[in-house]
Design goal:
about 450 residues, mainly alpha, globular
């Protein structure tokens, strides 16, 4: 996690200083790049951000939780430094995850990024071109490495929570967890399920299906994952005895005192309904040919709904504060809180990655989209043709990628803003969870010292 943040921080600083370097040195850095290749790197990063955010949503909304099942521990284990005896097996596991990543996002199979980096530093055009190319190459290498690190973490979590038994996709590196081996008899009996497209189809294929739909990212957010497609959780599912269901939030509310839990669940239901109504109203206001009287009514409704949402969020925060001041400590609640904290910490770390990535990506993407937007169709085709002649992309893939790029550029501003909003809303909620769950852990420590 720290390595990822450091990579993005350096990338952000380098991207931010590109123009300053050009002005100070006279080096025309942007002329040493291929705009199609640069925007492709941005887009695969953005695709992975959208996928990771959806994965976090699945974990919070759909995954059953049990004190007997280790899946939350498994999620976080990959972010830890492996034991000395596990390092070689970890390298093999990482290589397998990288293969799965290339299956999910065709960019990694389509483009030879290393060859592109080498061309940037080839020194063609003299010493200035060499210096400019070196700066661009360093930035792009950081971009790709950060994308790969986030992608491997995505693949790890995706297959931990899937219906595939642990180890059937990639042999897990740690013997501290029971797992199988690809090709084993049990793994061979697991059939690819067509009713589980999130796990049976390439992520990119699923994502584009929804990004290009009328409602764009909204349909991706609302894609529902069948419980049968998820890991078979051992032991009693938390929340079942209270009739609360098994989602993270439902189990989380079982930690609240009864009188606060009932109010919190009621406020949550009202808030979800109000937010849904607000989104619908805002979508209506985007209609270009909306009659004036309907537009005025929708604007008034939007104002009222925004006030209602703000009021409900304030009520929700107040109830959280009350719950934190009246924590009821029992051994069972402490165990539950610890399990939930493991899940919340994984998703919270994921959101921190997304936030850091968005900052770094924004700076680079602005430069790259500006460059591409100034190109006509012939210039775009020439840029792709150059990548073909240099062996960076095969001719058979070039036409398809160019057509896809055209679609992506049209929807890019809207989808980018939507992904930011999607991730930000989740981040806010998860932070609330973490604060409350950490209170339980702190209370347990205090009790031990008494």
């Amino acid at each position: 996690m720290k390595n990822f943040i450091c990579l993005l921080l350096v990338l952000f600083l380098m991207s931010g200083y590109m123009k300053a370097i050009e002005r100070a040195t006279g080096l025309e850095l942007s002329k040493n790049t291929n705009p199609v290749m640069e925007i492709e790197m941005d887009l695969v990063f953005l695709d992975q951000l959208a996928a990771f955010t959806k994965l976090n949503q699945i974990i919070l909304d759909r995954m059953p939780i049990s004190l007997d099942d280790s899946w939350p521990v498994l999620l976080n284990d990959y972010s830890q430094t492996p034991l000395e005896r596990e390092k070689e097996a970890r390298k093999t596991y990482d290589a397998c995850l990288a293969k799965l990543l290339s299956d999910d996002f065709s960019f990694y199979k389509t483009y030879k990024v290393g060859l592109y980096i080498n061309l940037l530093t080839s020194g063609r055009g003299g010493i200035q071109a060499l210096l400019a190319g070196g700066i661009i190459a360093a930035r792009d290498m950081l971009m790709v490495e950060a994308a790969k690190e986030m992608g491997r973490r995505y693949e790890h979590a995706k297959w931990v929570i899937s219906y595939y038994p642990l180890g059937c996709k990639c042999r897990f590196y740690s013997q501290r967890f029971e797992n199988l081996q690809p090709g084993s008899r049990i793994c061979g009996q697991i059939l690819k399920r067509r009713d589980c497209p999130f796990f049976s189809k390439p992520t990119e294929e699923m994502l584009y299906k929804y990004l290009f739909a009328q409602d764009g990212l909204k349909t991706w957010e609302e894609l529902r994952i069948n419980l049968d497609c998820l890991r078979v959780v051992e032991g009693m599912t938390l929340g079942e005895r209270a009739g609360a269901g098994s989602s993270f939030k439902k189990v989380f509310y079982t930690l609240f005192p009864d009188h606060i839990r009932d109010k919190a669940e009621s406020v949550d239901s009202e808030l979800e309904l109000a937010q849904s109504d607000l989104k619908s109203t805002q979508e209506k206001l985007k209609e270009k040919d909306l009659p004036t009287d309907e537009r005025l009514a929708a604007e008034k409704q939007e104002e009222n709904l925004e006030e209602k949402v703000d009021t409900l969020i304030a009520s929700q925060n107040k109830l959280y504060d009350q719950a934190m001041s009246t924590v009821e400590i029992t051994p069972e609640k402490i165990r539950t809180a610890k399990r939930l904290l493991q899940i919340a910490e994984f998703t919270n770390d994921g959101f921190e990655q997304i936030a850091a990535a968005m900052i770094a990506l924004t700076v680079k993407m602005v430069d790259d989209t500006t460059a591409v937007s100034n190109f006509n169709q012939t210039q775009l085709e020439n840029s792709v043709a150059y990548l073909v002649t240099q062996g960076i992309i095969s001719g058979s893939n070039a036409k398809k990628r160019l057509a896809l790029l055209g679609k992506r550029l049209v929807t890019l501003p809207v989808n980018y803003a939507a992904i930011v909003g999607y991730a930000t809303a989740q981040k806010f909620q998860v932070s609330e969870y973490v604060d409350y769950l950490e209170t339980f852990v702190e209370m347990e420590e205090k009790l031990k010292k008494q």
